Amino acid sequence: MRRALAFALFALMAALAQKPVVVATIQPYGLLLRELAGGRLEVAVLVPPSANPHVYEPTPAQVRQVAGARLVVANGAGLDGWVVDKVVRPNALGTPVFSVAEHTGEPLLTTPTGPDPHVWLDPLRVAGALSALAEALAQADPQGAALYRTRAVRLRAELERLDQEMRGLLAERKRPGVITLRNPFRYFAARYGVPILYTIVPNPEAPEATAKAAAEAKKVAQEKGIRHVLAPLAAKGQALPLAQNLGLEAILADVLGEEAKTYPELVRKVAEAFAQALR
């Protein structure tokens, strides 16, 4: 009897010690959730930072992970619809999905193929979604509600200060704009008034740059006095040889959180990459 009671007590203590699990589709939102949670939640991320979230295929283990989660935080706007279409809906999961893009308070930018999904690279849009995200966390974990709301207010203030810091960083420019390898930078560029003169691979699902696009990028660079190609860190293997062939220098920006330890650090590093490209 004593052994059974001891085992039951141990099981109860283990259950109480387990943190509620929340899942982010991409690492930037994993970083964001860790800052809001303050260690209270177990945060899992589905897409490795070096992978392409547009075409990601979730694994069976990740389906089980989502099934056991209190909340999924997705980007939305067409980036990671697979989390609903391939994980939640076909497996009849009851896990709620929060879409950041639907809660920023600003209209989405558009592309010829639909909305531009890369909203996490605009810190003020993310700041605008924090209150709603904190409420979603509060519903998923009511005991942590006060913590999430408090930390959301604090993080919003930090992002607003960061916005002012980055405006100062980007104020001095010698170049008329930037040439980008791929297309995740439009929200950041729009927020800080940086013209994107040319994007070499505008289709996020296209694997390589075409010869025609490379030639056009070289022409634009010569005409506008551009010395750099701005590229996502995840596209390093493509960016370095392409930039060399164009006679330009590649600047790599960590847009998916491969190296950043916090969300503000991620955005600040992107700002530093832009500033370097504009010198």
TrEMBL record:
<keyword id="KW-0175">Coiled coil</keyword>
<keyword id="KW-0479">Metal-binding</keyword>
<dbReference type="InterPro" id="IPR006128">
    <property type="entry name" value="Lipoprotein_PsaA-like"/>
</dbReference>
<dbReference type="GO" id="GO:0046872">
    <property type="term" value="F:metal ion binding"/>
</dbReference>
<dbReference type="Pfam" id="PF01297">
    <property type="entry name" value="ZnuA"/>
</dbReference>
<dbReference type="GO" id="GO:0030001">
    <property type="term" value="P:metal ion transport"/>
</dbReference>
<dbReference type="InterPro" id="IPR050492">
    <property type="entry name" value="Bact_metal-bind_prot9"/>
</dbReference>
<comment type="similarity">
    <text>Belongs to the bacterial solute-binding protein 9 family.</text>
</comment>
<feature type="signal peptide">
    <location>
        <begin position="1"/>
        <end position="17"/>
    </location>
</feature>
<dbReference type="GO" id="GO:0030313">
    <property type="term" value="C:cell envelope"/>
</dbReference>
<keyword id="KW-0813">Transport</keyword>
<keyword id="KW-0732">Signal</keyword>
<dbReference type="GO" id="GO:0007155">
    <property type="term" value="P:cell adhesion"/>
</dbReference>
<protein>
    <submittedName>
        <fullName>Zinc ABC transporter substrate-binding protein</fullName>
    </submittedName>
</protein>
<feature type="coiled-coil region">
    <location>
        <begin position="145"/>
        <end position="172"/>
    </location>
</feature>
<dbReference type="InterPro" id="IPR006127">
    <property type="entry name" value="ZnuA-like"/>
</dbReference>
